[in-house]
Fold this protein.
Amino acid sequence: MERVQDPVTQWCVLIEETVGMGEGQRWSVSRIRKFDTREDALAAAEQTAREYQPQHPTFAKARDVYQIGVDSWVVCVPGATRQYHFRVSVGKKV
């Protein structure tokens, strides 16, 4: 099957997570990856949810991945002293 690329639409995988240290910690979009097709972006997003190493915690003890929509995942990552999470989403640049 031939893949048809939409010359206008750009699909993106966005990662939202806690960044920074100490009092400077904040929730932010930390990474955006661009793809030509929605299918490629969805595949990359699912892999990202399973494999991405977030900034916090430094030493992850586990990972629970929850698909909360067709194109979004929330990942819970417990650390030594706190539970962190990050979100992976597929979006279309408009």
In short: The first helix runs from residue 38 to 51.
